[in-house]
Amino acid sequence: MKWKNGKGKPEALKGGHVSSNGDVGTVTGLLKKKSTYIFLVCLIFVVLLPHYSSNYALRLMITMASSIVAAMCLNVVLGYMGYPSLCQNVFFAVGAYTMALATLRLGVSPWTALFLSPIVTFIVGYLAAIPFLKLRSMFFAIGTLAFTGVVSAILVNLPKITGSDAGLRGIPRLVKSDINFFYLEIALILVILALTGLMSRSYWGKILVAIREDEDLAPHFGIDTTKYKRLTFAATSALTGVAGAIFFSYQTYISSNYFTIGSSFTALAVAVVGGGGTALGPIFGGLVVVGAPEVFRSMNVWRPSFVGAVLVIVILLSPGGIVGISQNLRGYLRKRGEK
Amino acid sequence: MAEPGKQILEIENLSKHFGGIRAVDELTFDVKQGEILGLLGPNGSGKTTLFNLITGVYGADTGIIRFQGQDITNQLSYKIALKGISRTFQSTKVFHTQTVLDNIATAMIARARKRHISESRKKVTDVLEFVHLEHVRNAIAGDLTHAEQRRLMVAMAFVEDPDLLLLDEITAGMSGEECNEMIEMAKRIRDKGATVVLIEHNMKVAMALSDRIVVLNFGKKIAEGTPEEIATNETVLEAYLGREEA
Hints:
The structure holds 2 protein chains of 2 kinds.
Chain A (H helix, E strand, L loop, with lengths): L26 H5 L3 H14 L6 H26 L7 H17 L5 H23 L4 H21 L1 H4 L5 E2 L8 H24 L1 H12 L10 H27 L1 E2 L9 H11 L6 H15 L7 H15 L3 H18 L1
Antiparallel strand pairs in A: 1-2
Helix pairs in contact in A: 3-8, 3-10, 3-11, 3-12, 4-5, 4-10, 5-10, 8-9, 8-10, 11-12, 11-14
Chain B lengths: L6 E12 L2 E12 L3 E5 L6 H8 L7 E6 L2 E2 L5 H7 L1 E3 L12 H10 L7 H14 L15 H13 L5 E5 L7 H16 L3 E5 L3 H7 L2 E6 L2 E6 L1 H5 L2 H12 L1
Parallel strand pairs in B: 3-8, 3-9, 6-7, 7-8
Antiparallel strand pairs in B: 1-2, 1-4, 4-5, 9-10
Helix pairs in contact in B: 3-5
């Protein structure tokens, strides 16, 4: 994503004015306040965490981090642009299979493959955007869900290439230690956080919000909605692809079982539970949606229903997700303080 | 800028059918640089469909639309907007969850030419003053009154000084007082030298504002002339005024 500088874009007119529709979470805005320090403390905590974690916990954290990346990307498409995509894990898969096939079949180094995966995913994302972004709301959701089904079927039915459900083994690792894999994912999260922050403050973010608010109105101001929709969709797909490539390089094993229709809801759940249209939402969402099933591991067969119930309760209590809850709570405490 | 009196918009044999309904039927007329052209006609006479054809919302079945000599028939809406045609809508359309400033900023983004920020700032200040919305600049558009929202919509269309401004019933759903305010505003737009095509249901408003009037009925042009000529035209009285009196 690029934004042209020095063009006198109107958002620069507004000085310190913060967009008022709840698009909090612009990184630069947060960093001006004491949240800078909170952010730094969190970062140090995250950096130190894996050194004191068990292998199991570290594995969970890496899984969480890659779900968070997928959800952060989806969040841009869903929260800013207003398109409920259900094919986020397709791009996770494309990135992952690019890593697997490029290293195993073409014999390139994993770092070259890591460089290739966003390029391939960007192209696939762009091509998918052409038909699917012509659909709106529910129809877009159904269309992208079907796309996930199609890709999933392809992965299962091309065993010679994808290894089907038996999978491909021996994907080379980008870095040796698990801790460094965790750091790679965290670095990717920070990059996406920064990009989302920049995007939401730039004219690009304004255009996405305009598309979400009234897609039929925006073109009458000269906005090429189709171009921005496709590029945003493809760019977020590419970043999701990077997460997929890193995760399966860490696993060293990939199989079509990871990319079923059911798993396509995970990214959506993470984004919605965290809070749509906020930069930090997916991080909280990832902690809950990926973390909760582990916490309730002892419940055995009841686990999925229990996790589902938790998600439903979060959404019922706060349509703004977890970020929404914390905002409501802050408002409530402030009111009590005034009494 | 072309000299006044030159045709800025030419419409030739334009037709649009919806199923069996001929919404716009073999329509031909011109808009001249610097004039205010009133489009008059009963409900369903094809006025809004015509705007939708000019701005690329619908594709035309037959006919040609030329803007500043260029064929713009069936082009994409955003390209037409970038060429300098701006419009408002009959039903109020703004970005409801955004502030007034954000709305105007969004309207400017794509059309802002390469220029200094201070110039953009000035444009915003000017346009807010122009439509009397300075006092609500940080308010959410959805919280504004109906009249304020409609003024905001005009501001968003007008802010980048379009070569041609299409106003679709700017007084729709307004009370007498608000109506007068809107007419005042339209007059000021005219005084700024903009070329305007005005859809107006209200005969009085159309007569007061327009230099020239085209009357439509069932998608066809039934009369064209100065407000005085239209006011005494038999066909118009029959098709339009006659119905209102009944």
